[in-house]
């Protein structure tokens, strides 16, 4: 019998499963789905994960099914079935060994709108081209800039998902890919025991209120696990609660004196590794912290604190190590005086009271493998 397509009851994605499987777990959201036979009577069998599926409905968001078709083959690992990369929009083309996906979201018209996210993407685009030789046509920019008229370049959930697939598609040894996100991040309660702190991290597309957020599990499954040997991925995530936004296996726990240890976030239930490549994430803050949108660093333009400090540090210290990069960014942000955090409404005044005269967010470094952060040189 041929493989069949079934919808995950938890997130709505279409998965391809073998004919003999009647209870399966989605590897993206970990939801458990039990399939009712098409003929004969049916009594639900005992499912040890049933309580997990019920609890998972309280995640607070709804994922929609992907509109493109699923490949006829299916992918499995030791923790479930997941959708294969889908056919990309014809306007997405990979160019050369260096590619980047840059997403900046201001959330126009919302009470939680940001001011610096689109600026972040424009700065990152210029930085990648000027400092690291990324070809202009190998950078895909998704923004809700009012001047953006192409619907395929708006950072909706679907467009970000497709952009992530474009970023990693056909990657090979020697490739360097970059994912930069500047926007809102949040946390969702984890029901499946694969997060040390009990929460999944998520990024918020421009349409997340209607279409849902993108969980760290999905980002990991899309751009981390397929990364081939000899390829490298850098993610720069300028968002709240972004410390483990890629769900990587190791987190660099560094104190203010620069001493560090690698914290192991691996889980027997979930594969957080790559297919041999190296994935590194530089994020705005710890999972439990918030990041800010401020003019205190640049003096004129509003930017994300992480994006600005990252670009400035790398430009001013060519050939620096990852350890030096992390320490310098933290020092820049820690020492910045700011009177007004550039947010709108009562949240701004509340954050000012909480933050005091300084920005209080600690950029984080995580990786798919451990290394000496003071000898390994940063390079894109």
From TrEMBL:
An example Gene Ontology molecular-function term: cysteine-type endopeptidase activity
Ranges where the Peptidase C14 caspase domain occurs: 98-370
Pfam families: Peptidase_C14 (PF00656)
Biological process annotations from GO: proteolysis
InterPro entries documented for this protein: Metacaspase (IPR050452), Pept_C14_caspase (IPR011600)
One Gene Ontology cellular component annotation held by this UniProt entry: cytoplasm
Family (UniProt): Belongs to the peptidase C14B family.
PANTHER family: METACASPASE-3 (PTHR48104:SF17), METACASPASE-4 (PTHR48104)
Protein name, entry field: Peptidase C14 caspase domain-containing protein
Lineage: Eukaryota, Viridiplantae, Streptophyta, Embryophyta, Tracheophyta
């Amino acid at each position: 019998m041929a493989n069949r397509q079934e919808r995950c009851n938890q997130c709505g994605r279409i998965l391809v499963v073998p004919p003999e499987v009647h209870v399966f777990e989605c590897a993206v959201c970990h939801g458990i789905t039990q399939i009712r036979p098409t003929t004969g009577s049916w009594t639900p069998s005992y499912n040890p994960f049933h309580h997990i599926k019920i609890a998972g409905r309280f995640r607070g968001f709804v994922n929609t099914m992907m509109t493109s078709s699923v490949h006829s083959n299916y992918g499995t690992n030791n923790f479930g079935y997941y959708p294969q990369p889908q056919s990309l929009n014809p306007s997405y083309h990979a160019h050369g060994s260096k590619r980047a996906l840059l997403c900046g979201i201001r959330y126009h018209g919302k009470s939680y709108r940001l001011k610096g996210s689109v600026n972040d993407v424009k700065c990152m685009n210029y930085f990648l081209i000027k400092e690291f030789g990324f070809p202009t046509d190998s950078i895909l920019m998704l923004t809700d800039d009012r001047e953006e008229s192409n619907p395929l370049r708006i950072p909706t959930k679907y467009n970000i998902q497709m952009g992530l697939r474009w970023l990693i598609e056909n990657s090979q040894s020697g490739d360097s890919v970059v994912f930069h996100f500047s926007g809102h991040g949040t946390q969702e309660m984890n029901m499946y025991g694969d997060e040390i702190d009990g929460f999944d991290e998520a990024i918020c597309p421009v349409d997340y209120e209607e279409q849902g957020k993108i969980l760290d599990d999905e980002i990991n499954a899309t751009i981390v696990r397929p990364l081939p040997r000899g390829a490298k991925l850098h993610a720069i995530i300028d968002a709240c609660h972004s410390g483990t936004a890629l769900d990587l296996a190791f987190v660099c726990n560094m104190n203010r004196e620069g001493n560090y240890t690698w914290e192991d976030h691996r889980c027997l239930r979930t594969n957080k590794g790559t297919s041999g490549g190296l994935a590194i994430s530089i994020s705005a803050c710890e999972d439990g912290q918030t990041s800010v949108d401020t003019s205190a660093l640049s003096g004129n333009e509003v930017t994300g604190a992480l994006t600005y400090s990252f670009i400035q540090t790398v430009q001013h210290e060519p050939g620096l190590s990852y350890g030096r990069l992390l320490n310098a960014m933290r020092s820049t942000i820690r020492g910045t005086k700011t009177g007004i955090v550039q947010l709108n409404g009562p949240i701004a005044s509340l954050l000012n009271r909480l933050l005091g005269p300084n920005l209080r967010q600690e950029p984080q470094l995580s990786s798919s493998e451990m290394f000496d952060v003071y000898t390994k040189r940063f390079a894109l």
